[in-house]
Amino acid sequence: MRSSTLLLFGATGDLSRRMLLPSLYGLFADKLLPEDVRIVGTARSKLSDEEFRENAIEALRERLPKDFYNEITARKFAARLSYIPVDATTPEGYDKLAEAIPIEKGVSIFLSTAPSLFTTVIQNLKRVGLAGETVRLALEKPIGSDLPTSCEINDAVAAAFPEERTFRIDHYLGKETVQNLLALRFANSILEPVWNAGHIDHVQISVSETVGLEGRAGYYDDSGASRDMLQNHMLQMLALVAMEPPADYAPEAVRAEKVKVLKALRPIMPDAVQKDVILGQYDEYAGELGKESDTETFIALKAHVDNWRWGGVPFYLRHGKKLETRKTEIYIQFKCVPHSIFSNVDARMDPNELIISIQPTENIRLKLMTKTPGLDRGGMSLREVPLDVTMEGAFSDYRRRIAYERLMLDLIEGDPTLFVRRDEVEAQWAYIDRLRASWLTAKMTPDPYTSGSWGPKASTDFIKSDGREWND
Ligand SMILES: NC(=O)C1=CN([C@@H]2O[C@H](COP(=O)(O)OP(=O)(O)OC[C@H]3O[C@@H](n4cnc5c(N)ncnc54)[C@H](OP(=O)(O)O)[C@@H]3O)[C@@H](O)[C@H]2O)C=CC1
Ligand SMILES: O=C1O[C@H](COP(=O)(O)O)[C@@H](O)[C@H](O)[C@H]1O
């Protein structure tokens, strides 16, 4: 059932202003937000409907690209918004929400608040009748800070919302090229026969950011790179690369295949952690934080998926803040040809590479060896040539969307395919908890690195010692 109300908790917060409201505007401007859908914002701030609308318009003006923002459209969009001030920690306000929202027409509730509020909010929603069959619940990450706390949140959710009405957000699944990975793998027949340990040398998944703490010091210092990015976005990308073909593009089929990969991840034990994991912290971190800290702002590791398809193929994962460039990509290096017929001439023979660029560019590139044009003496020389699948410019109506646009639309429509199931999130935490326990046992602390670099030198050395290098 499509929801006719979107109830947004944390409607005045950073995520709402930067991502959620602009995404809803994007859907509205593209006529994808169904006519009857109304958005009710809530938070503690005592705002009137009109004040909330003006705040929303201001956020849209700030956040949206100039050539997409339109004042008239923004005002029409704002007419769909209303606001009810509620302190989520006290029971009173929930009755006001229940009175104002017609549940029989379907409701999607989005919790964009600190996870510490989740349990109280959910219990109160249930108490006032806002958890019935027509109501769905979306939760922002982080779902806990380790496996036990994640299970606690998931139990509290399950007491009010069955799994099929629970939508856990991982905004990377809303990114265009992340979804394109599924199309690339499962809508083409040429890749599947070579998508395995017989043909793939290794996989790299890199998320490098130029930003630092961005005003989230308290949260970040408790989380670090492993819990902030690796636990969720990076393991989700790994699962999409490594999963078996699902029978169909349907929520349970897709998620069941992903969870098998997550459960097949080899735990990184204390004896392997110093060799297979690099931790770093950018040089300005303690200064920004105002105290010394052992929190990692960089992590690189070698992961293994212990199953038939991937036996012996390393997955190198790397993420850091304050690195040289902003880049998210999945890099797949195929094995070299088994025998070079060109070995008698001075011919370069590079392995094929598939690069799925997620941001800042959205692009898929396959690098192939071809003949260098010309009349080389004594044979031929070879060169690497890219085959590009580019989004930008390829479709006249293409617009770079915020990842949440896809997710908001799917939430309203009730399609959970691109949301994370409970067993996935818990398998992700199990992997991260083991990893962190191992590095604590091994007494590892982060190596310092210069802001604007590619992270600690050890990260380059560790992949080099396997005879490989990062695709920078
Ligand atoms: N910001 C980001 O880029 C990202 C954020 N997230 C996650 O999203 C969630 C929200 O993050 P963010 O927007 O940055 O957080 P903010 O601190 O900016 O916003 C929190 C929101 O919750 C409201 N709030 C706080 N306490 C209460 C309360 N007792 N009752 C009702 N409302 C309350 C605040 O409004 P008021 O003060 O008016 O009550 C505000 O609207 C967090 O879990 C965060 O980890 C995840 C990924 C990225
Ligand atoms: O979830 C998070 O993601 C952002 C990075 O998102 P992106 O879409 O800009 O790649 C990260 O900066 C933040 O620390 C983390 O909480």
Automatic annotation (TrEMBL):
Catalytic activity: D-glucose 6-phosphate + NADP(+) = 6-phospho-D-glucono-1,5-lactone + NADPH + H(+)
TM regions (residue ranges): none
Statement: the UniProt record of this protein carries the keyword NADP: yes
Coiled-coil stretches: none
Name the record gives this protein: Glucose-6-phosphate 1-dehydrogenase
Catalytic residues as annotated in Swiss-Prot or TrEMBL: 233
Glucose-6-phosphate dehydrogenase NAD-binding domain: residues covered: 8-180
SUPFAM superfamilies for this protein: Glyceraldehyde-3-phosphate dehydrogenase-like, C-terminal domain, NAD(P)-binding Rossmann-fold domains
Family in the record: Belongs to the glucose-6-phosphate dehydrogenase family.
Annotated metabolic or biological route of this protein: Carbohydrate degradation; pentose phosphate pathway; D-ribulose 5-phosphate from D-glucose 6-phosphate (oxidative stage): step 1/3
Domain Glucose-6-phosphate dehydrogenase C-terminal: 182-471
Function: Catalyzes the oxidation of glucose 6-phosphate to 6-phosphogluconolactone.
Top EC class of this enzyme: oxidoreductase
Binding site for NADP(+): 10-17, 44, 141
Gene Ontology biological process terms in this record: glucose metabolic process; pentose-phosphate shunt, oxidative branch
Molecular function terms from GO: glucose-6-phosphate dehydrogenase activity; NADP binding
Binding site for substrate: 171, 175, 209, 228, 321
A GO term from the CC aspect: cytosol
EC number from the UniProt entry: 1.1.1.49
Keywords (A to Z) from UniProt: Carbohydrate metabolism, Glucose metabolism, NADP, Oxidoreductase
Family annotation (NCBIfam families): zwf
Pfam families recorded: G6PD_C, G6PD_N
